[in-house]
Design brief:
The complex is a heterodimer of chains A (524) and B (76). With 524 residues, chain A is an all-alpha fold. Helices cover 76% and strands 0% of the residues of chain A. Chain A has a single domain, classed as Up-down Bundle (Sodium/glucose cotransporter). In chain A, helix 5 (82-97) runs antiparallel to helix 14 (276-310) and helix 8 (122-140) runs antiparallel to helix 19. Chain A is globular. Chain B is mainly α and 76 residues long. Classes of the chains: A mainly alpha (524), B mainly alpha (76). Chains A and B meet through helix 2, helix 3, helix 10, helix 11 and helix 14 of A and helix 1 of B.
Chain lengths: 524, 76
C-alpha cells in the first residue's frame, strides 16, 4: 500500500458530483427570495434559534477548521485539545452574560463597521472596514489550499495541476451560488451542509475509533503521546520547543476568547437572528458545535498520528515527503482517511467535507463583500441605492474570489495553519476589541482612540513566520541570544491597540455629538 | 496537574464532542428545517409586500423611475 493509495472509487465521484450539482440548483432557486439588501445580507433577519445554530455550525465547522484541527491533532496529539477548552469557555461566558453580542444586536446594524459609525464617525467606519476586509481576506487566503489538500489526499490525485484545477472549480461553484442568492442561499445550503457534515463527521469518528481499538485503545494511546499543553517540549518528537507551552497558551487564550466574541463571520449570523435574546442564546448553544469542531477533527489527527507511527514504512515515506516539502502535516489526516474508510462511505465523507468547505466560503465571502459594499464603497460614494449595494456586494464577491485563487496558488504557509489563521485574525481582532467593547461600555471612548487602535491592528502581520524571520535576522542575528517568537508577537500585537486606545481617547475626546444627517443616512 | 488528570480531561472532552454532535443533529436537525420553511415564507411575504409598495409608488407617481423605492434602508 503506497502513501497515495485510496479507497476512493467511481461511486464516490458520483456521490460528490450529485452533491455539487444540488448546491448549484439551490443557488438558483434561492435567488427568488432575495427582495432587497436586508434579504441579501442578513436574510431579512428572519432566522430563529435552531436554524441560526445549524447554519452557524455549517459556517464554523469548515473544511479549513477540520484541516487545521486535524493537523494539530497529528502534531500535538491530545494536548491540542486545549483550544477546545478555551473556545467553549469563551462562548459559555458570552452566552450566559450576553457580553457585547446582546448590545451589538440591539443596535440593529447590518455589519460591525456600521456600528463604528453609529458610535464614532464615518472615518472610523471606513478605516475599520478596510482593516476588517484586509484581515479577513488574508485569513481566508489559505482556505482554498487547505480544501484542495484534503481532496488531493482523499482522492489520491497526485498531479499538481489537479490541485489547481480543483481549487478553481470549488471556488467558482461557491461564487456562483453566493453571488446569486446571498444570505438566503447561504442559509439554505448551510443547513443542508450541516446535516451532511454532521452525519459525515460521526461516520469518520466511528471508523477512526474502531481503527484505534475503541475507547480503550484511545486511552492506551494517550499514555505514549503529548497530553500536557503546559510543557513546551513535545515528548514524542526530538525537536526542542515544538509543543505548546505557557506563552503560546496565553496568546491563544487571548486571541481565541476575543475571536469567539468579535469574529465578523460569526457576528454576521448573530446580527441576522430575530432578537438580542436569540443572539445571546445562540452563543450559549453554540458551545456544543464548537466543542465538536475542536474535538472530532483532532481525534482524526490523533488517529493519523497513530496510523503513521505504527505503519513504519508509510510513516517514513510520509516524513520524507514532508522533509522534501512535497507534503505538509496537513495531508496526514486525508491520506489516513483514504485508507481506512471504505468506498461509497468515502464519497459521503468527501461530500461532507466539501459541504464544510463551501459553507465556510460562502458565509465569509458574503461577510467581507458585504462590508466592502456597505462600509467602504457606500460611505465613500455618499450613499448608494439598495439595488446598487447588492450589485457592489456581488462584484466584491467575485473580486475577493479572484484574490483567493491567486493567494491560494502561490502563498506558502510558514507555520502551522492555525497559527497563520490566528495571526492574520489579530489584524482585525486587536483593533476591534477596544473599539467595539470600549464603544459599548465606556462613555469616554473617542473617535481618535478608535482610529489609533484600528491602525495599530496592522502590527498583527508581525506574527507571520516570514516577518519574524526578517525581524530576527535584522535586529537579533545571534540565534543563541534573544529572539522574538510567534507567541510573543501575537501577545504584543493583540494588546498594543488597547494600550493605545485608552490614552488617546482620554487625551483627544470627541466633541459633544450633534445630529449628523449624512451619517444617519449612510448608516441606514 | 498530573498526566493522568490531563488524559482524563481529554477523554471527557473528546466524548463530549462526539455526543454533542450526535445530540445536535437530533435536536436541531428537524426543527431547523421547519424554521427554514417559516423564514422563507416570511421572506416571500416581505418581497411581495415590497413589490406591492413599489407598484403603488409607481402608480401614484411617487417613484422617480430610477428605483427610488430602493433608497429605503433595510428593514429593522
Amino acid at each position: 500500500m503506497g502513501l497515495f493509495h485510496t479507497e476512493f472509487g467511481t461511486i464516490d465521484w458520483i456521490i460528490v458530483a450529485v452533491y455539487l450539482a444540488g448546491s448549484i440548483l439551490i443557488g438558483v432557486w434561492a435567488n427568488r427570495y432575495v427582495g432587497g439588501l436586508s434579504d441579501y445580507l442578513v436574510a431579512g433577519r428572519t432566522l430563529r434559534i435552531r436554524l441560526a445554530l445549524a447554519t452557524m455550525t455549517g459556517t464554523e465547522l469548515g473544511l479549513v477548521t477540520v484541516m487545521y484541527v486535524a493537523q494539530l491533532g497529528y502534531t500535538k496529539q491530545f494536548a491540542s485539545l486545549y483550544l477546545a477548552v478555551i473556545e467553549v469557555a469563551g462562548l459559555a461566558v458570552i452566552g450566559i452574560t450576553g457580553l457585547v453580542v446582546f448590545r451589538l444586536r440591539q443596535e440593529a446594524v447590518l455589519t460591525v463597521p456600521e456600528y463604528y459609525q453609529r458610535r464614532y464617525t464615518q472615518t472610523v467606519r471606513v478605516v475599520g472596514a478596510v482593516m476588517m476586509v484586509l484581515a479577513g481576506v488574508l485569513n481566508m487566503g489559505v482556505f482554498l489550499k487547505a480544501g484542495s489538500l484534503f481532496l488531493v489526499g482523499v482522492t489520491g490525485l497526485e498531479d499538481p495541476m489537479a490541485m489547481k484545477l480543483i481549487m478553481s472549480g470549488l471556488l467558482l461553484l461557491v461564487l456562483f451560488y453566493t453571488v446569486l442568492g446571498g444570505m438566503v442561499s447561504v442559509v439554505i445550503t448551510d443547513l443542508i451542509q450541516f446535516l451532511v457534515l454532521g452525519v459525515g463527521s460521526l461516520v469518520v469518528s466511528y471508523y477512526v475509533l474502531s481503527e484505534l481499538g475503541g475507547v480503550g485503545g484511545l486511552w492506551e494511546l494517550s499514555t505514549s503521546t503529548y497530553v500536557n499543553p503546559l510543557l513546551i517540549d513535545n515528548p514524542v518528537t526530538e525537536a526542542a520547543a515544538d509543543g505548546v507551552g505557557p506563552w503560546m497558551l496565553t496568546a491563544q487564550w487571548l486571541t481565541l476568547s476575543i475571536a469567539v466574541m468579535l469574529w465578523p463571520a460569526t457576528l454576521s449570523r448573530t446580527l441576522a437572528v430575530k432578537t438580542p435574546t436569540v443572539a445571546r442564546r445562540l452563543y450559549l448553544f453554540s458551545t456544543i458545535p464548537f466543542l465538536a469542531r475542536r474535538t472530532l477533527p483532532a481525534l482524526w489527527g490523533i488517529g493519523a498520528f497513530a496510523f503513521f507511527t505504527l505503519n513504519t514504512e508509510l510513516g517514513s515515506e510520509f516524513q520524507q515527503s514532508i522533509d522534501s516539502k512535497q507534503l505538509s502535516t496537513l495531508s496526514a489526516m486525508p491520506l489516513y482517511l483514504a485508507k481506512i474508510i471504505p468506498s461509497g462511505l468515502l464519497g459521503l465523507v468527501t461530500a461532507a467535507m466539501l459541504a464544510a468547505f463551501m459553507s465556510t466560503h460562502d458565509s465569509y465571502l458574503l461577510c467581507w463583500s458585504g462590508v466592502v459594499a456597505q462600509d467602504i464603497v457606500a460611505p465613500l460614494c455618499g450613499g448608494l441605492s439598495d439595488r446598487r449595494r447588492v450589485l457592489v456586494t456581488r462584484i466584491s464577491i467575485v473580486v475577493i474570489g479572484a484574490f483567493l485563487l491567486f493567494w491560494g496558488l502561490w502563498y506558502e504557509v510558514g507555520q502551522e495553519l492555525w497559527d497563520y489563521l490566528a495571526i492574520t485574525g489579530t489584524v482585525y481582532l486587536s483593533g476591534a476589541l477596544p473599539v467595539i467593547v470600549g464603544g459599548l461600555y465606556w462613555r469616554r471612548a473617542s473617535s481618535a482612540g478608535a482610529l489609533a487602535a484600528l491602525v495599530c491592528g496592522v502590527m498583527g502581520v508581525c506574527g507571520l513566520a516570514q516577518v519574524i524571520d526578517a525581524i530576527n535576522s535584522t535586529f537579533f542575528p545571534d540565534p543563541r541570544g534573544f529572539q522574538v517568537f510567534p507567541a510573543m508577537m501575537m501577545l504584543l500585537t493583540m494588546v498594543t491597540p488597547t494600550l493605545v486606545f485608552i490614552p488617546v481617547s482620554l487625551l483627544l475626546p470627541d466633541r459633544p455629538r450633534t445630529d449628523q444627517p449624512g451619517d444617519r443616512e449612510a448608516v441606514s | 496537574m498530573s498526566d493522568f488528570a490531563w488524559r482524563l480531561l481529554w477523554m471527557v472532552i473528546l466524548g463530549g464532542g462526539l455526543l454533542g454532535m450526535a445530540g445536535l443533529l437530533l435536536a436541531v436537525g428537524v426543527g431547523s428545517v421547519r424554521e427554514l420553511k417559516m423564514s422563507l415564507e416570511e421572506l416571500r411575504h416581505g418581497s411581495d409586500d415590497k413589490a406591492a409598495d413599489d407598484d403603488a409608488g409607481a402608480e401614484s407617481g411617487a417613484g422617480s423611475g430610477d428605483g427610488s423605492g430602493d433608497e429605503m434602508g433595510p428593514s429593522r
